[in-house]
Amino acid sequence: MRKSELLTNLNNKHPHLNLNDIETITNIFFKKIIRGLADSNNIEIRGFGTFSKKTNKSKYVRNPKTSEKLFKEENYKIHFKVGKILHTRINQNLESDE
């Protein structure tokens, strides 16, 4: 789902809200998540899941085409762990399709 589709769905469910207001709210929501992860905080949304920041250690890597050794600096990745409620909802939908 794209952000525009999310905004359209929210606008359809809440027609009393202006589309610009919905976009502002979602932008604030995403910025808070990004700022929290940048500050090395875990972001937990109960029933949905937890976002956390993981560290990839610095290491030597090899270019597969040239076999040249390169040094890769330490960097970060985002890890998402699915919450129990979301996990059961997803699996219920799969079981009903079979």
Describe, in plain words, how this protein is organized in 3D.
There is one protein chain. This protein is of the alpha+beta class and 98 residues long. Helices cover 46% and strands 28% of the residues. The protein has helices at 3-13, 19-38, 84-97; strands at 43-45, 49-56, 59-62, 69-72, 75-82. Strands 1-2-5 form a 3-stranded antiparallel sheet. Strands 3-4 form a two-stranded antiparallel sheet. Strand 3 (59-62) and strand 4 form a beta hairpin. The model has no long low-confidence stretch (mean pLDDT 92).
Structural class: alpha+beta
- Give the class-level CATH name of the largest domain: Few Secondary Structures
Counted by DSSP, the helix tally is 3
Total strands: the figure is 5
Distance between the termini: 24 Å
Question: What's the arrangement of secondary structure elements?
Answer:
Layout: H1 3-13, H2 19-38, E1 43-45, E2 49-56, E3 59-62, E4 69-72, E5 75-82, H3 84-97
Antiparallel strand pairs: 1-2, 2-5, 3-4
Helix pairs in contact: 1-2
